[in-house]
Amino acid sequence: MEAAQVKIFKKKERTLVTFSGEMTIANVGELRERLLQAFAAGKTVELSLVGLTAIDVTGLQLLCSCHRTSVAQGIPYLLTGRNEALAAIAEVAGLPRLKGCVQDVDGTCIWRIDTDKVTV
Amino acid sequence: MSDAFAQAFKDEARELLADLEEALLEMEENPDDLGIVGRVFRTMHTIKGSGAMFGFDDVASFTHNVETVYDLVRNGELAVSKELVNLSLAARDCILDMLESAESGTPADLQRNDEVIRGFRALVPEQEDAEPKPGRQGPPEEQADPPAPTVTYRIRFRPEPEIFTSGGNPLTLLRELQELGPCNIVANTCEMRPLDALDPELCYMYWDVILSTSAGRNAIDDVFIFMADSCELSVAVIDDGTGVEPEAGYKKLGEILVERGDLTKQQMQHLLGKQKKFGELALEAGMVDAATITSALVEQQHVKEIRQERHAQTQTQEAASSIRVSADKLDLLVNLVGELVTVQARLSLVAQELKRHTELVSVAEEVERLTNDLRDNALDIRMLPIGATFSKFKRLVRDLSAELGKEIELTTEGADTELDKTVIEKLNDPLVHIIRNSIDHGVETPEQRLAKGKPRVGSLHLAAVHSGDSVLITIRDDGAGLNVDAIRAKAMERKIIPAGAELSDREIWQLIFAPGFSTAAKVTSVSGRGVGMDVVKQAIEGLRGSIDVKSEPDRGTSITLKIPLTLAIIESLLVQIGKDRFVMPLAMVDECILLTEKEIEQGHGRDILLVREKLVPYVPLRKMFRIEGKAPAIQQVVICQLEGKRVGLVVDWVIGEHQTVIKSLGRMYQQVEGMSGATILGDGSVALILDIPAIFKSAEEAP
């Protein structure tokens, strides 16, 4: 198994987190710590998943949890570099939806279909 | 076991086998299409199942072996190969043999069956598959026959939070559910926490799944079998697969939420008091989460779609519903309709004579109209598309071209053209002869074709098209064409034509229908024995049809058969000679002209008439049938066309068009030349049906 890699780049107006490899129960704990750090910077958090090769339900939960954090703390959260590995699993897990959750007041839910964030 | 059931099985099995053959040939062309593999598998499965049910144990056990192999193919463990198709076609023939041997009592060729089975076994990579696989695949397959109704379930699946650490993966379960049938999955994330409060190794989600499946409740329980203790699971039937009214729609959103336990009845009724969309209300009131609403809406949509689809299916099923009627009963019906047409003609005649009775006249007209409709309908019932016959030829072409080392592609056109059942049955043999000839003599070997600069693969085209009250069936190949010189030489050698005779190409092409004619240098298993084309001609003429040949050297040959739509009732022309009346098929009649005594004299003893600057020979039927009495001063000539030749038939009067119900002549009269049948006219008298090709022939042979 390819070792997962997380890198944090502190940019001027945002914090870029790049992830590559498999996002599974084996590394979600560590990834959570890194993401907390990223949010702690207080700037827009961009999570790039270009290098994502596989994901399980814990990974999906983590992505969702980031969004909760963003809504709760008022820190914008962008999910970029979505790929088919993510879209396919999200589909199986029944995540793509038309409307976000109660907390999702601004309609930034990462699973919304009409925002073309999740390719279905 | 009742014979009637066994017969029904045999009938069904024959149809299935025909379908199987078609599917196998299709599979050979598209080996990667798993849909066709599935069709082959299902057909085998049905033959096996019903075979066992009706006591055809040999068929069942034989088919079982074949089915086992196809199970592997279907699962992608075995590739479709030429060998597999060959074996499968052989297996299809074996099954047909077994069915027929059960009927005739002669034992089937067990040795060949064993060989085929051995062939199949050799294809299976390892012996472990010889036994049917136990487990999940088995039971649902067996139950699929007859199909269980598609039931829609609502499944709420809430794993315990520690599911991940105990090695469980909800995705696997969701995927298994998806395999059972059309499935809508909604994950509920309302319990998700922000990162700081999140234990990433716990599960915060639960799932609502709406699944439509025919696999039954057990299959769903099987999916969760290893999770039973570590998840909350509720499964409820929300559509039992029986109602078909789409108008009824599905439950209101509020009702769904209450049923799911997401909302209490009181809460729902409280909300219903306000006039707003229920979902928005519930959301605004903060009683439920948006995801919960989404999930409930998905259920609503899913069931609506399923019900609509089922409604559509039921409708098409109703439209396509049919009953099986034995051909004898249909023949009887057509016979009775024939009698009715005759009686109706008589009624009309009587009504004509008693014109004063206006009421009788109007009733007679009504009866005439109804009889015509009834006749058209009755004949229509016996109409079958010719496609079934065409697809049989696919196999013939495939086997023959392989045997002769040729590569030939068969294309068909107009497979849905309908012809009377009896006509189609009688067409089969002539068509086989023509196709055999085309493959053997017409299409060249790949090497010869390449040398001539033609594509390597030869083509054979079968087309059927309606033309008036006839159907034209064309068999066209792109082979070498008819060799005019060889045919001429052979015809002279066999003294079919006199030495040195000058014949047009068209006349020479017709020579291939002469009895015992063959130009093939050597006799192959396929053709060359010189029996065939004359038989074809006889058969087609027996159907009151005609054959036309066209050929171009190295471009190919095209043979067109013109066949009447039906044999029972024909449109014809009623004529009179002396006191006798005759009918001739209208399809062959070109025109009617007058023949005066002066014109007869101009022929100088030869029966030839000048029509629009062209000479047309004629046959005086009065003389031919030796009818006594004197012909009127002005006679009429009915000019008929056959195989491109125009010949006149001289009669006293042409009476007019007539609906002729064909009656066959008694055995004593069957050999009478020039007559092909009889019909009963309105006044009860009998009119003979002229056999025009036979009259042409005897006139040609006359000195």
Automatic annotation (TrEMBL), chain B:
Q: Which PANTHER family does UniProt cross-reference here? A: CHEMOTAXIS PROTEIN CHEA, SENSOR HISTIDINE KINASE CHEA
Stated role: Involved in the transmission of sensory signals from the chemoreceptors to the flagellar motors. CheA is autophosphorylated; it can transfer its phosphate group to either CheB or CheY.
* Residues covered by the HPt domain: 1-102
Instruction: Point out residues bearing the modification Phosphohistidine.
Output: 45
Q: Which residues form the CheW-like domain?
A: 569-701
Positions of the UniProt region annotated as Disordered: 123-148
Keyword line: Phosphoprotein
Domain named Histidine kinase: residues: 331-567
Keyword Phosphoprotein on entry: yes
**Protein name in the entry:** Chemotaxis protein CheA
